[in-house]
Amino acid sequence: MFLWLVKRGLQAVGVIVVMTLLVFIGVNVIGDPTAILVPPEASAADRARLVASLQLDLPLWHQYLLFLKGFLGGNVGNSFVYNTSAIDVILQRMPATIELALAAYAMSIVIGIPLGLYCGLRENTLGARLVTGISVLGFSIPTFWIGIVFIILFAVDLGVLPSGGRGATVDVLGVPISLLTVDGLRHVLLPALTLALFKIAFMIRLVKAGVKDILPTQYITFARAKGLSPRRIVFVHILKNLMIPVVTISGMELGTLIAFSVVTETVFGWPGMGKLIVDSINMLDRPLIVAYLMIMTALFCVINIVVDISYALLDPRIRVAQ
Amino acid sequence: MSSDAILEVENLGIRLRDRQLVKNVSFSVGRNETLALVGESGSGKTLTSLSIMQLLPRALSVSSGRILFQGRNLLELPAREVRKISGNRVSMIFQEPMSTLNPVMTVGYQVREVLKAHSPMTNAEAEAQVVRMFERVRIPDARRRLNDYPHTFSGGMRQRIIIAAAIVCKPDLLIADEPTTALDITVQAQVLSLLRELQDEYGMSVLFITHDMGVVATIADRVVVMRSGEMVETAPVERIFRQPEHSYTQELIRSSSAFELDDRDAGDPAPGPFEPVLSVQGLTTRFDVKGGAWGGRIGQVHAVEDVSFTIGKGETLAIVGESGSGKSTTGRALLGLNRPNSGSILYKGRRVSRFDPDETRHLRTGIQMIFQDPFGSLNPRLRIRDAIAEPLLCRKLCSGKAEAYERAAFYLEQVGLDPAMGERYPHEFSGGQRQRISIAKSLSLQPDVIVADEAVSALDVTTKVRVIDLLKQIQETYNISMLFISHDISAVNRISHRIAVMYMGRVVEIGPRRAVLREPAHEYTRRLLSATLTTDTSKRGLAVDSAPRELVSPIHPVGYEPAPCRMREVGAGHFVLAEI
Known about the structure:
Chain A has helices at 2-29, 33-37, 44-53, 60-72, 86-121, 126-140, 143-157, 182-214, 218-225, 230-259, 262-268, 273-283, 286-314, 316-321, and strands spanning 170-172, 175-177.
């Protein structure tokens, strides 16, 4: 097991190195930041000074090596726009996005799994058919539209929930977390729900398909023949087998939640990384883009390793293969 | 109602929408008695047994009848009451040990939960009982293996664990749905003998479902024969075998008889002078076992070790063995489906062991294979006539589609199918018919040798006989040689001229059919034959279930050089492996 972890760790490092290359090349192709950062009436000397200070006059490979050196030291340069360490800027906003993603993820589990179980076990009832049908909406409705509708409904018309922004935070180990305050929870409810809709629909389908696969198997029939209660059969025998595909797939989804929460963050004015990265691309703030991509890559690698570990924990047959 | 009966089934009917799957079934199981419910696929025997414990799939329903267990009608009890009885007073075990246990839970847990579901006790008490039960069903190292997962056990072991789970509450009735069908012969004998011991010890009644009359003759007290959802005949076991009344029962008995074909006229050895067609010398195939820290090669499975034999024109050589013996690997090597490590294969005098593409293509026309699974062997998207015509067209053995279809129709007729059926898809045929189609497919290439790799193992008993007879007939008509690979002695007895017995990758005995079966010279052959169940009821009784002998895979570390194979002659053409 330990050797497997080492191997996976090395693989992750390999991915990150390739990523640095790709990112660096890609970012250098998307345009000249000086054109944006420098006012049009600046003199050629000013422009030259800016270029030199940003080290944009060095040959490409030199810039890459400097970049790698800085990256290993935890510093990819100062953001062109904010003029502070790019990584710091991102890390400042990361807790908000992760909070949102985790809240959405938790919702998809808490709402999606029970509903999926219900649809799978009571397949032909009216309720199950309704839920399955409505879940299609979860796939098709665009996030920004549903977000705006939620705001109109709950914040403007009913006035029970705030219309945007992040709630009061509490510092835990130096990281501000808003999920631990009531005000914070009120603020995160709508954006998380908006973000989670797709995931809930997906989870319902996934769980339902899993139940349909597992229910007719011989070992479930044997469990019934043993005289076990239906509750035990569903929550112990079926659920444990079900978790394997669910964890695998939804684990990957967590990464995308974190990375692509842009729209929701924009609609709800949620101070997260998503809006930051879009703005940075528009502003050609290279260090920030690079820092964001590297952090995301590392995050995805970590999530994948965690998913693999949990997969092995859930399915004993996989452990042997390792 | 006899007060001695544990279970009484009266006029049971089971329906799927508007089709009656089971009709008018009535029988009873007495105290301490073993009732065998016999039938082939589609007979309704499994459905009948599932309905006893309300385990029928949702789409099916019981349309009529009563099932009385100790006086109560099980069909009318609410689910909660049935649950109290399931696993407790009535237990059920199933056919496939591989899929009956939940793969993500330890075996100890799965047996423990039965105990805890039916009587209040602490985890420690339950675990102690489970350990005792594991020891009783002879699982070695019981206490430690409680915490192992099902996939770490072999099929026979898993079936023992399942039996442990079923009888841990000491039920009055055990329903066993073909529990040994998926197991090797020697393992089957052990499991049946274990069941008999447990039955005597606990005073349990057994409802045993099977299609194998050999099993029936060995363990049953009374027999009920079913076909197409109805009862055909019922009688005590002695009478059923001595005076079967119904023609279907007679056919079943005939099909299952293992040793009773002395008057076989195909004669052994094969008629005519011996003309070698296929000769195998020193064939060795080993597969790597990867493992360790960096996935290197830590050992090899010696699947086939120094195997030699010759097949003559128009003769059938049978290879008999259990799982892991190497018989299938040998058969596949003949078609170039795997790459042997050493040895040579001579086909019509030409060496074909180098396996370059042209050589194997030539091999594959002259040597054809029929596989075990009739449902997996045919492409479900091709019509039958296309499936047969395809190789003809690919190898340009026909001038065009029309001629290929004509040939396909011809061979369909040869195997006893209506040529007009060529337009249908595989799923419209039964298992036996699909095997016939596979035979037609091989025949159309006009091979010299046909390798039948467990070709009849997945078929019903009566179908098996018909397909074997077809193979024999084809052999006579076309003078084809056959390599018949099987674990089933009765099938082998019916079709072969010579028999080779394989164990742990080696041929341990080879000789004329009669000689090998009547005077087995090797200890393994003797073990195999004694484990084969006969329909001779005078030979009832199984050997006591001694410690289960696991079927080991011959895995050896890298660099291990096994001794070469030396055979000793014990009779005319009858050789046995000389033990070192």
